[in-house]
């Protein structure tokens, strides 16, 4: 007996559910992700089926009959009952367009709900044709129409007994032929389901491998972009370190200026101290020198000049101390910035080395 493989006539992807046999209310998901659901036509038996395979297991194997009804319970969900499998199947689609064709839009192909009605009508027509041609297409029913004889087989004479024996042998052959045909049909159906399961399993594995390859290529491209970004950032950090080192060299020259300022500050302090001593000496001698009016005025004027000089020296001392404090603070900030940049450079260099190792392993694995 030769069998013809079933050909898919429509396919889509959806999340498959089955009704809970205990409660008859809750849905039980048949898989963790969306599966391919296809309409198939079995030319050998002239029947239409809905088949979905998850891995090596047939999740849906439902033969469509004219009394089945596909019901859309929401914009993205539909269901139908299969009395032969004693269950209710449910399909959840990614969008409304995958479930049914929008009203008035004839440019879109028939979707699952419309295809169900079309296949249901085709199954009804196929059943009617099968019923009209049953006696011509079924060899098990055509044999007795030629071999089973009427009442003469019950005659008691010799020829009648011979006819009775031949009729009983024909009945045995007919029943044997029926059993053989049923066995061959069942074995062909099981083989077809196994072939379909293996085909969909290989197709699913191929899709997974292609998706993994695309994902790996996308990851390689992403890592290349990250590597280029890290290299740019590393180059920017190197330039920043060079600038900070140059600034540090300028700070070393500013250290020399700080030393000069310190020396000038010490000289000003000594001069201020000497002027204070001179002022005290002049104050002590002021009483004895006031005898002469001209000498007194000169002394007072000199005293005022010395006090103004003293105020000027004090102001310069304050400015020098402030400049020294600012220079020391700036030096501390520069040293802290150099340390922070060096730490960032170490971290980026470590991440760059790890990224290169990962990229090398990925290239070797591909």
Task: Characterise the protein shown here.
Strand 3 (35-42) and strand 4 (47-54) form a beta hairpin. The radius of gyration is 52 Å and the shape is rod-shaped. Strands 1, 2, 3, 4, 5, 6, 7 and 8 form an 8-stranded antiparallel beta sheet that branches. Helices cover 66% and strands 14% of the residues. By secondary structure, it is α+β, with helices and mostly antiparallel strands.
Q: Label the overall shape.
A: rod-shaped
Rounded to the nearest angstrom, the radius of gyration is: 52 Å
Number of strands: 8
Helix content: 55-70%
Give the topology, please.
Layout (H helix, E strand, L loop, with lengths): L6 E13 L7 E3 L5 E8 L4 E8 L2 E7 L7 E2 L4 E6 L4 E6 L3 H4 L12 H21 L1 H4 L1 H4 L1 H4 L10 H132 L3 H73 L1
Antiparallel strand pairs: 1-2, 1-3, 1-8, 3-4, 4-5, 6-7, 7-8
Short description:
The protein has 366 residues and is α+β, with helices and mostly antiparallel strands. It is built from 7 helices and 8 strands.
Which tags fit this structure?
366 residues; alpha+beta; 8 strands; 66% helix; 14% strand
